[in-house]
Amino acid sequence: MSNPLVSVVIPSYNHAIYLSKAIKSVKNQSYTNVEVIVMDDGSTDHTKQVVADFENVVYLYQQNAGLSAARNNAIPHCKGEFVLFLDADDWLYPEALNHHLRYLLKDPELYFVSGSHMKIFVDRNILIQKADYDITEDHFLYILQHHYISHPASVLFRRKALDTYIFDINYKSCQDFAIYLAISKNHKVLHHSHLVSAYRLHSSNMSSNYVLMLNELLDILDKYKLDLHSENELKAYTEGRKMFIKFYTKSLYWDKLRRFKIKGTNEEVGILRKHNPSLYIRYLVNYILKR
């Protein structure tokens, strides 16, 4: 087996309290030919000082421009043949890179591989390993229908993929979904079931913004609709749209409006009214009774 360099890019915006764990998780990989690049997206905390505590970690700085821009701007600095993007509040398990490389080195046509991840619900002290899909073909359709790659750090890209495809700066939370669709529609990708990453879910990350995520996911899906021609593609699009609407409206209702018993914003209530009328009525009834 060859020993190619892997670049791990860690974008960070005011996540200094988490950053050390992310860097250590890369340093502790059983696969050791790795470079670590931290892209500071205009942080006002002590991100730079955290990086300075580590040897052989590249520190880059940009004015705050968002996650997509941070990733895109780090890519030209990557010297590796493969690239992984690790958010500063997440971490990798020790065998992550070895698991990925086992497949990428075997098949040079693969543009990226993805693995399984563990969800860490910080506020509720809950660990959930993501249920895995047994996918051997039609990865584009599965991503379209299920978005089975729900954690960016569970993906290792071949560098040449990122010379052609970049992260869309118009999306704040679902840029990963967009790039996975673009690549898998045109190139070979692979998914395996090995546990590779930990996804920390807490109130300050994008994953808690249900309205933003649903709106962006539906926008991305709808942009692909015109390019879908086969019956299977159109079915995957329709099922994917239904799945996203059901998941995010229920999450908004149960996880936020009901669990925390707070009044929804006009945008949140509007999402329920538009996409899930039955939950909208339940929200109104509960809100009126609470008053």
From TrEMBL:
Coiled-coil region list: none
A Pfam family assignment: Glycos_transf_2
Tree of life domain: Bacteria
Residues in Glycosyltransferase 2-like domain copies: 7-164
Cited InterPro entries: Glyco_trans_2-like (IPR001173), Glycosyltransf_2 (IPR050834), Nucleotide-diphossugar_trans (IPR029044)
Name of this protein: Glycosyltransferase 2-like domain-containing protein
